[in-house]
Specification:
The complex is a heterodimer of chains A (191) and B (716).
Chain A (H helix, E strand, L loop, with lengths): L9 H6 L4 E3 L1 H10 L20 H14 L12 E3 L20 H14 L4 H6 L4 H29 L9 H22 L1
Antiparallel strand pairs in A: 1-2
Helix pairs in contact in A: 2-3, 3-6, 3-7, 4-6
Chain B lengths: L1 E10 L2 E8 L4 E5 L6 H12 L14 H5 L8 E10 L3 E12 L5 E14 L2 E6 H8 L2 H4 L3 E3 L12 H9 L16 H19 L5 H43 L1 H27 L4 H7 L8 H40 L11 H10 L1 E2 L4 E2 L5 H17 L17 H20 L1 H39 L5 H9 L1 H39 L3 H46 L6 E7 L5 E7 L4 E2 L4 H23 L5 E4 L7 H13 L4 E5 L11 H5 L3 E8 L13 E7 L3
Parallel strand pairs in B: 3-15, 3-16, 8-14, 14-15
Antiparallel strand pairs in B: 1-2, 1-4, 4-5, 5-6, 6-7, 9-10, 11-12, 12-13, 16-17
Helix pairs in contact in B: 6-17, 7-8, 7-16, 8-14, 8-15, 10-13, 11-12, 16-17, 17-18
The chains are: A mainly alpha (191), B alpha+beta (716).
Chain lengths: 191, 716
């Protein structure tokens, strides 16, 4: 059996890819809450934004989709856009004052994608399907979860334009999504 | 002067004509906020204003009356008039007309200020301004009309005492003889006599050496005296300056202490608030990523990943085992076929079996096995089976290859180990988040409470400053910090003043001595006379200076005595002490309250402060009466707004017992629901009127506003 180096790993192949989103979300959401599209994060305009890179907004959207257990296919008729920053660089460096790196999030996104997609791992292991195809499946799933998240956020903004500008605006969404599940589970157990 | 009646027409809220018959004692006009109390006061103030010749102010016109005007129609008028008794009955009226021209523009015309007075049995029209200035001149008026409590302190300006003394005493008459600034006649005469003496002495023919020496010495002493007097004046000024400063600080000492305490509290609260705010870490959105809070719902996903990865690995292992088994079997066949693998000693190999069949003897049983017998057939069958099993099944080496070409299972296992490592952290995230949110909320609440306390303290500070005549915080603080300096400067000035006084006396004595000696030895009659004249005029000048000082002191004493008489009446139960009028440099003065044990009351409450000022005003009114042989009314707008109900009742009772005509507009005697407190009203000795807005007026529309005056109590 041939020894594998890290660049050949499935995770590494996945991490070399970039995420993409429906272009309209750039103005609707991403640029509103992150430095995306403003160039240097030191620019005055960027100061005071909730997030740094645009991908941070994507991570938020992805987890909303994941915890809602909902994916939404990207609209084929609409333009798509990439962040220009492969996943392997997401949250890697503490580029902004006071920010920390968060490598574990990438691993957990990958684990979640493996868990939530119907990949035939045996076939992959046997070489019956290509790693590149599997990675594409994972990326598609990731984009779809995030796409659901973006629509969710757009709806939130429509209902209450200020809700996400509060300090706890995004946190509340996650607390809401993760807490809601518990009573449901309990109810099911009772039934 | 007693006002008999007042008539107001179309003056602001007083729509139409209102005539009020006044009592010669206390007259109270009761009204709530906006009912027209200040307008009543303003109407009288307008009537008494003799500074302007034309006063057709459109703002004075009743808006209700204005609303009834028709373009190009008849004119209406604004007027305020008064009938009063002052050496006979007199009448003044100030008025102007207003109308809308053909274009609907408001125009004013016919400003008039007329007066009428009786000459014998005739009533003659005179100039209203002149009549008023003659009967109720500006110097008196300024001590008769007061709006609000804060305007009652008449000593709050420089020269106030000087003005008062000049207006109401005879002291001013001394000014032509002695001013203290070398402008009086005696000072002028002394200077001239001095010059004449010097010239006479100089010109004396037979001046002896002794005379020359004396003259030189007198000249030297005079120069020294001038210099000492100048220094003394500076020292006096310095002393007065620092004394005033220290007196102010003293009166503000408590306020300074309070201010320092409040500022310390504010500083402390601000520090605590800042420290609290520094601890608040509510960048929750960033924490979602940086502190992995976003993974708070990952547990079920990780479980799923774990299940899937483990199932994959298990499946792979199963397949690998199967594969291995399959591989093992093939190897054995190959080896058996090659004879590499020995069989059980009890199982004969192919060669042995062929030999046994050939020999027709079973070596396993040790018995013969003839051809055709069962044992022979069994051996043949066994041989055939063996041959069958190895025939054509020897595995081909080329066919041997791996089932799995990739090894992602190892990678997934590694990732699973990584995420498992994070599981404990993830399971604790919900608690970490709620703990952090709770803590931040607690800190925010704490910071908010600190801010509220800061706001309260700032309010308290503002109240404190406004209570102390709106002195600025910087002044209060700087003065307080420099109090030891000011004390030192005042003591230095005092010390220097005393030293200079002694020196001045020494020089004066020496001068007198030398002058007497010179007068004694002067041979020349002319110079002798000049010396004596100068000496005599100096005595006269000193006498005038003393008399002026004495008269001023007498006036202040008289004013103080009268004021204390009123203070006693106005503060029946509250305060036992006296008012002191402290004279200061530059004709200024200040009032202070001293209680019976001699302690200065530095921060009297507003009611006591008002009583103090009122007492002085009544006292001034008394002195006015003495000087002018006439009495004057006192008119107040809301003078008792800081008084409590009991204090108010006592106050008005005291005022009604003072033999003066008082016109007071007040909110007193109104209950909380706006109705009149009749028992209290009945208790008053005077005329009482109710000011109120017409019930059908709409406060939003000025054109409906109308004040009514209703007599409430007319029997005294």
């Amino acid at each position: 059996m041939a020894a594998r180096n890290t660049t050949d790993s499935l995770f590494a192949l996945w991490a070399k890819r970039d995420a993409y989103f429906e272009t309209h979300f750039q103005d609707e959401i991403i640029s509103k809450f992150s430095d995306y599209g403003v160039g240097s994060s030191k620019s005055n305009e960027a100061k005071g934004k909730t997030f740094g890179g645009g991908y941070e907004m994507f991570i938020i959207a992805f987890f909303i989709g994941l915890y809602s257990d909902s994916r939404r296919e990207l609209d084929k008729s609409l333009d798509k856009k990439k962040f220009g920053q492969p996943i392997e660089y997401w949250g890697n460096l503490d580029s902004r004052t006071g920010r920390k790196s968060y490598p574990e999030i990438r691993k957990h996104i990958f684990a979640a994608l493996i868990a939530k997609t119907d990949i035939d791992l045996i076939a992959l292991e046997k070489g019956e399907i290509e790693a590149g195809d599997v990675v594409s499946t994972l990326i598609d799933a990731m984009n779809e979860y995030a796409n659901y998240g973006f629509y969710y956020l757009a709806e939130k903004l429509k209902d209450n334009p200020n809700s996400l500008y509060r300090n706890s605006g995004f946190l509340d969404i996650f607390l809401d999504l993760t807490r809601k599940k518990q009573p449901k589970d309990e109810e099911l157990e009772e039934l | 002067m007693k006002i008999k009646n007042i008539s107001i027409k179309n003056f602001r809220s007083y729509y139409g004509t209102h005539t009020i018959e006044l009592y010669e004692g206390l007259n109270i006009f009761i009204g709530d906020n906006g009912d027209g109390k200040s307008t009543l006061f303003d109407s009288l103030n307008w009537l008494f204003d003799t500074t302007l010749t034309e006063q057709k102010n459109e703002r004075l016109i009743s808006k209700k009356c204005l609303a009834h005007l028709v373009s190009g129609g008849d004119a209406e008028s604004v007027s305020v008039s008064m009938t009063f008794e002052h050496d006979g009955e007199k009448y003044i009226e100030k008025s102007f007309d207003f109308f809308l021209d053909a274009n609907g523009n408001l125009k004013t015309a016919n400003y008039q200020f007329v007066g009428y007075e009786e000459y014998g049995s005739e009533r003659q029209r005179v100039d209203g301004r002149r009549l008023l200035d003659r009967c109720f001149d500006a110097s008196i008026r300024q001590y008769c009309l007061f709006k609000g409590e804060e305007k009652l302190d008449i000593f709050n300006t420089d020269n106030a005492l000087q003005y008062l003394v000049n207006t109401f005493s005879e002291v001013h008459d001394f000014d032509m003889f002695y001013t203290g600034d070398e402008e009086g006649f005696t000072e002028f005469a002394v200077q001239n006599a001095k010059r004449a003496r010097d010239v006479a002495i100089k010109n004396a023919n037979a001046t002896t050496q002794k005379e020359r020496d004396l003259n030189t010495a007198i000249g030297e002493i005079s120069r020294q005296l001038t210099s000492v007097e100048r220094d003394l004046k500076d020292a006096e000024n310095n002393y007065n300056k620092y004394d005033k400063l220290l007196t102010d600080i003293e009166s503000h000492a408590e306020a300074s202490e309070d201010l320092r305490r409040i500022n310390d509290r504010i500083k402390n609260l601000k520090e605590r608030k800042e420290n609290t705010e520094l601890k608040i870490d509510d960048a929750y959105s960033k924490k979602l990523l940086d502190d992995y809070w976003i993974m708070c719902g990952m547990s079920p996903v990780i479980e799923l990943f774990s299940e899937k990865t483990n199932a994959f690995i298990k499946e792979k292992q199963k397949l690998e085992i199967k594969e291995a088994e399959k591989k093992g079997k093939k190897e054995a066949i190959k080896e058996i076929a090659a004879g590499v693998l020995p069989l059980d000693p009890l199982i004969p190999d192919r060669k042995s079996m062929e030999n046994m069949i050939h020999d027709e003897f079973c070596k396993v049983c040790g018995r013969p096995a003839p051809k055709g017998s069962d044992p022979y057939n069994f051996m043949v069958q066994k041989l055939q089976s063996l041959l069958d099993s190895i025939s054509g099944e020897v595995p081909n080496d080329e066919e041997d290859s791996n089932l799995f070409t990739n090894n992602y299972s190892v990678e997934l296992q590694q990732i699973l180990r990584n995420v498992d490592y994070m599981t404990m952290r993830i399971n604790g995230l919900q608690n970490e988040i709620s703990g952090s949110v709770k803590e931040n909320n607690r800190l925010k609440m704490l910071a908010k409470n600190f801010q509220r306390s800061i706001d309260d303290a700032i309010d308290e500070k503002n109240k404190l400053l406004s209570k102390n005549n709106n002195i600025t915080e910087e002044e209060l603080d700087t003065d307080y910090k420099n109090i030891s300096n000011w004390n030192k400067y005042r003591n230095d000035a005092d010390h220097s003043r005393e030293k200079l006084k002694i020196r001045k006396k020494e020089l004066n004595d020496k001068l007198t001595e030398l002058q007497s000696e010179l007068a004694g030895i002067s041979k020349d009659d002319k110079s002798k006379t000049a010396v004596l004249v100068h000496q005599a005029l100096q005595y006269i000048c000193s006498a005038f200076a003393y008399a002026k000082q004495k008269n001023t002191r007498n006036f202040i004493e008289l004013l103080t005595t009268h004021a204390n008489g009123y203070l006693k009446k106005l503060n029946v139960d509250d305060f036992h002490g006296v008012i002191q009028i402290i004279e200061r440099a530059n004709g200024a003065a200040r009032l202070q309250l001293v209680d019976n044990d001699g302690t200065i009351v530095t921060n009297p409450n507003t009611a006591l402060e008002t009583s103090k000022f009122m007492s002085v005003l009544f006292a001034i009114s008394d002195l006015t009466t003495l000087k002018r042989e006439n009495d004057y009314p006192l008119i107040f707008d809301a003078p008792t707004s800081s008084f409590g109900p009991q204090k108010e009742r006592d106050f008005y009772a005291a005022i009604s017992s003072v033999n003066k005509q008082c016109i007071i507009a007040t909110k007193s005697f109104l209950k909380e629901d706006g109705s009149l407190d009749m028992p209290k009203i009945e208790h008053q000795k005077g005329k009482i009127f109710r000011l109120s807005l017409n019930p059908d007026c709409d406060l939003e529309k000025m054109s409906t506003i109308q004040t009514n005056i209703e007599p409430i109590k007319m029997n005294i």
